[in-house]
Design a protein that fits this description.
The complex is a heterodimer of chains A (about 180) and B (about 400).
Chain A lengths: L10 H4 L3 E2 L10 H7 L10 H8 L4 E5 L5 E2 L14 E5 L3 E10 L15 E8 L6 E7 L11 E9 L2 E8 L14
Parallel strand pairs in A: 7-9
Antiparallel strand pairs in A: 1-8, 2-3, 2-4, 5-6, 5-8, 6-7, 8-9
Helix pairs in contact in A: 2-3
Chain B lengths: L30 H15 L9 E4 L5 H8 L5 E4 L4 H13 L6 E4 L10 H4 L23 H14 L8 H11 L13 H6 L2 E4 L1 E2 L18 H7 L3 E9 L17 H12 L9 E4 L4 H11 L7 H7 L1 E2 L4 E4 L3 E2 L5 H4 L6 H11 L13 E5 L7 E8 L3
Parallel strand pairs in B: 1-2, 1-3, 7-11
Antiparallel strand pairs in B: 4-5, 6-12, 8-9, 9-10, 11-12
Helix pairs in contact in B: 1-2, 9-10
The chains are: A mainly beta (about 180), B alpha/beta (about 400).
């Protein structure tokens, strides 16, 4: 991702972690995932999500019967009550639905408050209206993210673990890929 | 004296039951999956659907906010109470008799944990759901105050407003608290003070958020007959409760067009013989200013998104207070923003004081009907209409 080479106002808070730019081969055993995400409360239903993160796949739930997407991962489809749920990777494209700037309180991996607040947004994923996932929003210098902005999934590495984030696509940006699974 | 009345005799039925298998080891299944399976079975056994259930009570390890989301249920009533499950039944019976809901699901779920099972202690996936750092977990990033901030930003975006619109609500609370000797914050503030206050969760600043305090309120309730013998009292005319399906997952609420507030007020006006015009004083919950704004809109004073203009039109510059429709005071005690955060208890206590004519210099003349709406917009909305009791 070329934009990572540019300085951004978020570059500071990405240290000492770094934005991950390659998919490493990782062990995805239960034990390895639990060790990697030791500070996250993982249960039987969310384990797959974090396993996906470890290999840069953003997994959302999809009902095998009615086809509806749902996040976070659930053992049952709230729409049709089917318990046949598959986990599918999201294309990671969407728009910002909710947005806030955090100035205090516990920080996301690699975020800190030394020089600026950092923004967190609920992103409405392109796969389905209302399918939302919350993560930090990263934008170019001098550009404050806004509700409605188009964003693209990226990954933050911190403490040996991968966490999802979204970067704002500028007007000149072409999406990395135009896939839609809708 | 032990309780002897039985006002529910023959009034409530059990219409469905559901269960999962009990086992020494259910294998690779979550507590949430077990609770969902049993709940689904019970509702199906009753030949009902998720749209028929409007009450969820849990006495087990799974919270109602999760049960709602996994079952896809908008509720009027929800409660988590300590077991045994009979307490859940008492809760459900009471909520049905009172009209808080019509069809209640009571779910009790058990799961071996490190606390009661040696084999479970070796299973790291059986840690308590609450453990871990929520700030690292993208499934939990919008919770508590953060959900207020996120939806406040969405409000400003959807209706093209600025955060200055929240200021008058903060100023109103402080002006009222000045007349409340027991309030925690009594120093008057202005809109300029508001705009200069430290930003906490952008777009919410320090003065948008209620003040944590030490304090307590208590209430005694009995039958209206007993109350007439006892002296000055206030009648609970109607109550309403609600939470939209998103439950614990606040970022998943569809939009600001249908929040817990809207569900609650829809129910309240159907239950009440009083209309909005009859309300002499209004206590919209103000844990965050955005919640007050949503409550004012949901109550019916104006449409969603029009609250800011309505508040400006209702501003009494001479007293630095709100007078809705030129008449109705708002949070006369100072609210959670200035009296102190009591999650609505202060609002109800002040309503009692006002309706009994005992609000001292804050007393509103001819105050006979109060509307109190404790709770946030999404997760725990409720409303009550209280009226002066006849002697």
């Amino acid at each position: 991702m070329a934009y990572l080479d540019q300085p951004t106002r978020f570059a500071a808070w990405c240290l000492p972690g770094r934005l991950a730019n390659s998919m490493n081969s990782v062990s995805t055993s239960d034990k390895a995932i639990l060790e990697r995400y030791a500070d996250v409360a993982i249960d039987r239903d969310s384990l797959s999500f974090w396993r996906g993160c470890a290999s840069h796949r953003l997994l959302v739930g999809r009902c095998a019967d009615c086809g509806r997407f749902r996040f976070p991962l659930l053992p049952m489809c709230p729409e049709c009550w089917s318990t046949t749920i598959t986990y599918v990777p999201s294309a990671g494209e969407g728009t910002i639905a909710l947005l806030m700037s955090l100035r205090r309180g516990p920080a996301y991996p690699a975020a800190h408050y030394d020089d600026a607040p950092y923004t967190v947004g609920a992103v409405e994923l392109a796969e389905q209206a209302g399918l939302r996932l919350t993560a930090p929003i990263i934008s170019s210098p001098g550009r404050s993210p806004r509700i409605g902005d188009r964003v693209q999934l990226t990954w933050i590495e911190s403490g040996g673990a991968e966490f999802p984030a979204f970067r704002v696509l500028d007007a000149l940006d072409k999406p990395d890929h135009g896939r839609r699974t809708r | 004296m032990t309780a002897r009345r039985n006002p529910i005799r023959d009034k409530i039925a059990i219409v469905g039951v559901g269960r999962t298998r009990y086992s020494r080891d259910a294998g690779e299944i979550s507590i949430g999956a077990l609770a969902a399976e049993a709940s689904r079975a019970a509702i199906r056994d009753a030949a009902l659907t998720r749209h028929d259930v409007d009450g969820v009570v849990s006495t087990g390890l799974v919270g109602t906010g999760y049960l709602q989301y996994v079952l896809g249920i908008d509720v009027s009533w929800f409660d988590e109470t300590a077991g045994p499950v009979t307490w859940g039944f008492a809760d459900a019976i009471g909520s049905i008799v009172s009209g808080a809901c019509d069809v209640a699901l009571v779910c009790h779920s058990v799961y071996r944990t490190a606390a009661n099972s040696r084999s479970a202690a070796n299973d790291p996936l059986r840690r308590p759901r609450s453990s871990g750092r929520p700030d690292l977990d993208v499934t939990k990033l919008i919770r508590g105050p953060r959900s207020a901030a996120a939806w406040a930003a969405r409000y400003l975006h959807d209706f093209n407003r600025s955060r200055e619109d929240f200021a008058l609500l903060a100023v109103n609370g402080r002006s009222n608290a000045a007349a409340n000797p027991q309030a925690a914050l009594r120093e008057p503030i202005t809109v300029s003070d508001y705009m200069a206050a430290p930003m906490v969760l952008d777009p919410l600043c320090m003065l948008d958020m209620d003040l944590p305090v030490d304090g307590a309120d208590a209430f005694v309730l009995t039958t209206a007959e007993r109350a007439r013998e006892l002296g000055p009292h206030v009648l609970i005319h109607a109550t309403s409760f609600g939470r939209s399906f998103d439950g614990d997952y606040r970022e998943q609420n569809d939009s600001l067009q249908y929040t817990g507030c809207d569900r609650v007020m829809e129910g309240l006006w159907q239950k009440s013989h009083y209309a909005l015009e009859d309300v002499d004083i209004f206590f919209p919950y103000d844990g965050f200013t955005i919640y007050s704004l949503l409550w004012i809109e949901a109550a019916g004073y104006c449409q969603r998104g029009e609250g800011s203009d309505f508040i400006r039109a209702s501003w009494d510059a001479a007293t630095q207070r709100l007078k809705l429709r030129g008449r109705v005071p708002v949070n006369s005690h100072g609210g959670s923003l200035s009296e102190g955060a009591s999650q609505g208890a202060g609002h109800i206590r002040e309503a009692v004081n006002q309706l009994r004519g005992e609000a001292m210099e804050r007393q509103v003349p001819d105050c006979n009907v109060a509307l109190v709406t404790p709770g946030g917009a999404f997760h725990n909305a409720s409303a009550m209409i209280m009226a002066t009791g006849e002697m």
